[in-house]
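Appendix B. Chain record.
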Amino acid sequence: MQRRDFLLAAGGVALNAISDLSGPMRLSATTKADFTIRIAPLSVELAAGKTIQTIAYNGTVPGPVLRMKEGKPTRVDVFNDTDVPELVHWHGQQVSAEADGAEEEGSPFVPPKGHMQISFTPRPAGTRWYHTHAMAMTDLTRGAYSGQYGFLLVEPNSHPGNYDQEVFLAGRHWDPSIVHRGAPNNDWTVSYNLCSLADRALANGEPIRVRQGQRVLFRILNADATRQLNLALPGHKFQVIALDGNPVPRPTAVELLTLAVAERVDAIVEMNEPGVWVLGSTRDEDRNIGMGVVIEYADRKGEPQWKSPDKSVVWDYTVFGTDAKTREPDGRFDMKFMMMSDEGKPFNRWMVNDQMWPNVDPLMVKKGKRYRMAFHNGMEDSHPLHLHRHSFEVTSVGGKPTAGIIKDTINVPKSSTVEVDFIADNAGPSLVHCHMQQHMDFGFKALVKYH
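Structure tokens predicted for this chain:
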């Protein structure tokens, strides 16, 4: 695969203005759908003797991989077999606010025991995903704590090749409980007892079987509600070719992948170290409760091997970007967020620019203009910031400039600032928020609105 071909096939990395391509939503429709999603309770045995009760899509966790064609109008039937209203969000897609699946933008709910048909034109191409956008608050059976997530692969009009096998992996923590942390955090968080990277916990499902010399394309998603994902495969390197589904200017081989909540990485691994290995979390406690999958070479047997990467290896977005100078934006927004004091009950509330949701001033934009958002994190934890219905270009991370990296979610490290540029090319309200469920639930969000 030539780099030029990959960029053209996936739509390039330029921030180009596009028109609103989405159609209406219907509570009942007779037009035949291209896809069907059924939201319903599910019992899943993730590990021997460890069964969870959750809500899922089409009876599987993760839900089915939906393969759509870029630019081809699509209809999706959504059936809600639960007793509560639901929302399906098309993460990373430039759809209308109505179809986006976000209450804050005015998207309608799929009613309990009800049906809705959603129509939109998939764009841009790349590794996207779909998931519930319902608020959970303190109910750890709802929202992102549930099993409502799946890959959405928007295939470009000309498909790039040069890999032998395609593997989808979605990291997830399960069996959550609310925990109060003391100093220095003094906050409420969520703890977990089980993990999965494929459809089962580590060592409980089928291995990924490979042959020496193969080039395997891994499409990896952090589908968690609250936790960062750090992955390694001993003896191998990940050639990162795309972030959040968008080709990177400088594909680079790395030993460690770090994905904040909602981020995706496309990476090719050359299978050149025969054996039986664990592709898994670098955190022993997560790997011990299931965060990993076995990679098994042909004609190799035995216990899966694990070796931790060098602790000096860290994730750095900027190695995938260029040092090109980005043009000055037409406008700028500063987004400062702050956790409120512990009120003695879960969870802590959040303020954005010293205002409490829903009384947060919107970020006002004009169609076709380019804007820079500066995310200021003065907290002790990192935060994954997601902008709905738009893509953005990362322009600086912790004061280090970069260019050409296009994403829809960016991790803002503790005590630092990250800057991103987006073009106001999709009219209508667009939510920007921390993708950690309890933070979004309790006020960590704002709206971009068009004049």
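Further analysis of this model is presented in Appendix C.
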